[in-house]
Amino acid sequence: MQIIGLTGGIASGKSTVAKMLEEKGAYLLDADRLAREVVEPDQPAWQEIVNWLGQSILLPDQSIDRSKLAELVFSNQQMLERLNSIVHPRVGTRLVALSKIIREKDPDAVLIYDIPLLIEAEMQSLVDLVLLVYVPREIQIARLQQRDNLSRAAVEIRLQNQMDIEDKKKYADAVIDNSAHLTETYHQADQFWDKLKPGGFYAHGEVDQR
Ligand code: ATP
């Protein structure tokens, strides 16, 4: 099995590229989705968050009010770190457990971890290679504003908590540039997929030797 760490900036197009690679036959584990699952009502992480922030962080159905939580932590580094320390280890455990199931089912699987903060969290050792979905900052801001209907200021706050996407390039084994039309992105995803095949540039075991 080969594990690809798919990362990028917020709204750079990770899900878009993940979907393309899934169509090619890759398996996908989405860290954001797992992060939502581990804080579902009565899970240990949910309990820790309620003990920490009180019942006022809950919606009437007892689920965590994610927009309220985001408002609190995105403007307070200490709170963000505390939240991460509650959520990240549980996501890591789920990733490892689910990967084991996939490996048993399909030992030749290409498995994608979609982890927005892979580089910031120094989780590269979990993956065989890092694939960065890149867009220049201005495109990133425009797409994020449009998709989530956010003000420029709200977008800037979210970006403050991420490494600049230009700096992330240094940590990437491969880059897909998602700044142009989706057909261009698809073409690059196709080329990347071909390089994973036996004999290809990123075929298992060859990354460390290049
Ligand atoms: P997040 O960081 O929030 O998980 P993401 O990196 O997964 O986001 P996407 O949701 O895939 O990013 O894309 C962000 C937005 O940009 C979406 O609204 C998507 O439809 C749009 N988008 C992605 N790629 C392109 C493209 N090449 N051209 C135009 N719009 C695009």
Task: Provide an overview of this structure.
With 210 residues, the protein is α/β, with parallel strands linked by helices. It has one domain: Rossmann fold (3-Layer(aba) Sandwich). It has helices at 14-24, 31-38, 44-53, 66-74, 77-105, 137-148, 152-160, 165-168, 182-196, and strands at 2-8, 27-30, 110-114, 129-134, 174-177. The protein has a 5-stranded parallel sheet, sandwiched between helices. Helix 1 (14-24) crosses helix 9. The chain starts with a strand and ends in a 14-residue tail after the last helix. The model has no long low-confidence stretch (mean pLDDT 93). Bound molecules: adenosine-5'-triphosphate (ATP).
Write the layout of secondary structure elements.
Blueprint: E1 2-8, H1 14-24, E2 27-30, H2 31-38, H3 44-53, H4 66-74, H5 77-105, E3 110-114, E4 129-134, H6 137-148, H7 152-160, H8 165-168, E5 174-177, H9 182-196
Parallel strand pairs: 1-3, 1-4, 2-3, 4-5
Helix pairs in contact: 1-9, 2-5
The protein binds adenosine-5'-triphosphate.
